[in-house]
Design a protein that fits this description.
There is one protein chain. The protein contains no helices and eleven strands. With 126 residues, the chain is mainly beta.
Length: 126
């Protein structure tokens, strides 16, 4: 069983920054491909950013390109989502996701991830 614990959410003004963290299992973390998804009120959960096991490959949804950066530190068993220039439309519950499948690739769909964190709320005020 892979447990993921997110942290770093909160309330921020438009234009501000937040960094989300996702702590994973120590021994198997480097075997995981990782991603961040978000669920906004009245919308379906959507892919935000993904990263392969080494960090050599990343992918972002168009609406966050140039503003968000996904990264990982396998030595610390932690993935990150640095969010800059936040907008009110970024308000959502952000979920960390992981999978033990092909770790060299990035998957952008929910069915590509077996393990999910509990979510952390990000609220951006205008």
């Amino acid at each position: 069983q892979v447990q993921l614990v997110e942290s770093g959410g909160g309330l921020v003004q438009a234009g501000g920054s937040l960094r989300l963290s996702c702590a994973g299992p120590g021994r198997t973390f480097s075997l995981l491909r990782m991603a961040w998804f978000r669920l906004a009120p009245g919308k379906e959960r959507e892919f935000v950013a993904g990263i392969n096991w080494s960090g050599s490959s990343t992918y972002y949804t168009d609406s966050v390109k140039g503003r968000f950066t996904i990264s990982r530190d396998n030595a610390k068993s932690t993935a990150y989502l640095q969010m800059n220039s936040l907008k009110p439309e970024d308000t959502a519950v952000y979920y960390c996701a992981a999978d033990l499948g092909r770790r060299t690739i990035v998957v952008v769909t929910e069915d590509g991830y077996e393990y999910w964190g509990q979510g952390t709320q990000v609220t951006v005020s205008s």
